[in-house]
Amino acid sequence: MPESPSKTVAEAAEPRPVSLPDSPPAGSNKAPRVAAASLIGTTIEYYDFAVYGTASALVLGPAFFPSGNPTVSSLAAFLTFAAAFLSRPLGVVLFGTIGDRLGRRRALVASLLLMGLATVGVGLLPTYETAGLLAPVLLVTLRLLQGVSMGGEWGGAVLLAAEHAPPGRRALYAAVPNVGPSLGFLLSTAVILPTLNIVGRDGFTDWAWRVPFLLSAVLVVVGLWVRTTVSESPVFQDRASAATREASQASAASPASAASSVSAVSRFPLGTLLARYPGRLLLGTGAAIGGSAVYYLTIVYSLSYGPKSLGIPQNTMLTAASVGAAAGIAITLPVARLADRVGRRPLMLAGAVGSVVWAVPMYGSLSTGNGLVITGAYTVGLGLLALMFSPAAAFLAELFPARLRYTGASAAFILANTLGGGFAPLVATWLNSQWSSPLVLGFYTGGLCLVSLLCLLALPETRENDFTA
After folding, report:
1. In 3D, which of 188, 228, 163, 181 has the Cα closest to residue 39?
2. Using an 8 Å Cβ cutoff, are 352 and 453 in contact?
3. How does pLDDT run across 266-291, given as a tens digit for each residue?
4. Nearest-5° Cα angle at 297, 171 to 353
5. Of the chain's two ends, which shows fewer C-beta atoms within 10 Å, N or C?
6. Which of 107, 103, 39 is nearest to 234 (CA)?
7. Which residues, 6+ apart, have CB-to-CB distance to 151 below 8 Å?
8. With 0-12 CB in 10 A as exposed, 13-18 as middle and 19+ as buried, what is 275?
9. What is the spatial distance between Cα 396 and Cα 406, in angstroms, rounded to a whole number?
């Protein structure tokens, strides 16, 4: 169970705003627009990430890491994919500090701009044939910047939507940005598939792989315009106003006391989080780790593994993953609405149990080589993922107090993504080099989903938590 530490003197002095009444909070009339802005930004960020993941599976290995061994080239490409996950914690520290101290909106605008610049940069890179070792060095550098951006994106998008939400609809509004990952993947597929069909595999490998990266520039301009026009989180504004009043009152009595009471909780949110809520952070990370594995093994690794190891046509794999992602999108918001009524844990537990059971049949379907069978298995698997993933946005945010919420929710989600998703393609590539069977993917994924199940059993329901505190 998460710890309930006793208050320190500094924390006792920290301003605590009055709970909101049973009416929409300030600015909630703009809640749908804010949720839409969060979704647009998250979709763009995950489009950028999905484009790189798909390009890694299709072309980036030979283009930037040429080798006589296809497995070595794939491992190198997936290693750069994992590199972005290694830099995500830096994004949590950077954007979490900005979001908890200066505002959610500022952090989100900065993260989107950084992602856009890095993605367009990948599209402009020279290949190994042109620039030699400089090419992979630049690619890894831009991937690290993408990872920093992603470290701040999810938590901020979820919080901006959730903290604008009317009472009783927090899970629903928080889940809107959660549609972004699957929507971003579908958008990337909608660009990559026609490009492949128009120019062919050789043309795509030669030059057309750059097109999806360069198109990101247009999407980022739209996303920045939308995000700069929405209001700041009312929960953050209330806390900031209360903190200012408290500091002014304390300063009049004792300037030194005012400085210590405010800075103790605001200067370095990650330090406070690790000192006071390590259990919540670890269990929250574990609760999300299985879903991360399902997502990245399905929409990244299997797109490479199916064609290269099993001879399944590339379009078949892209179609199966796209249909499954669309099914997940279709049920994400209904699941979130149900989570507002019955709680977050029951649905997440159901999704975790289902994923443990379904993981082996899901990836075992690849052995059939049948597009309909694979599509059906992926649709069920990504539907179960939606049961875990949709309520997770509100659940992780509700585990942490408002002053640490951006950092806490982001850290739990990003660590889960890094451990469960970022290294999944690398681990899966190695596993299949040792045991040439798609069943090993199911056992690996099922094991991580079991970890999520156990962590969820150790955590309490959060639906009734005071979200303003």
Report:
1. 181
2. yes
3. 578 888 999 999 999 999 999 999 99
4. 55
5. N
6. 103
7. 87, 88, 89, 90, 91, 92, 93, 94, 95, 111, 410, 414
8. exposed
9. 10
- Fill in the amino acid letter for 304: S
Q: What region does 21 belong to: left with phi over 0, alpha with psi -120 to 50, or beta?
A: beta
Q: CA–CA separation, 347 vs 155, rounded Å? A: 21
Per-residue tokens: 253: 């009595």
Per-residue tokens: 96: 């979490």
364-396 pLDDT, tens digit per residue, is: 999 999 999 999 999 999 999 999 999 999 999
Q: Encode burial over 427-438: b for 16+ CB neighbours within 10 A, e otherwise.
A: bbbeebeeeebb
Q: What is the number of H-type helices and E-type strands within the chain?
A: 22, 0
Distance CA 446, CA 293 (A): 9
How far apart CA 181 and CA 215 sit, in angstroms, is 18
| Tokens 């399944």, located at residue | 312
Tokens representing 73 are 């080239």
Asked if 438 contacts 366 with a C-beta cutoff of 8 angstroms, the reply is: yes
Distances (CA, A) of 339 to 18, 19, 172: 25, 22, 8
Length of the chain (residues)? 469
Candidates 409, 461, 414; CA nearest to 156 is 409
Are the C-beta atoms of 270 and 408 separated by less than 8 Å? Answer: no
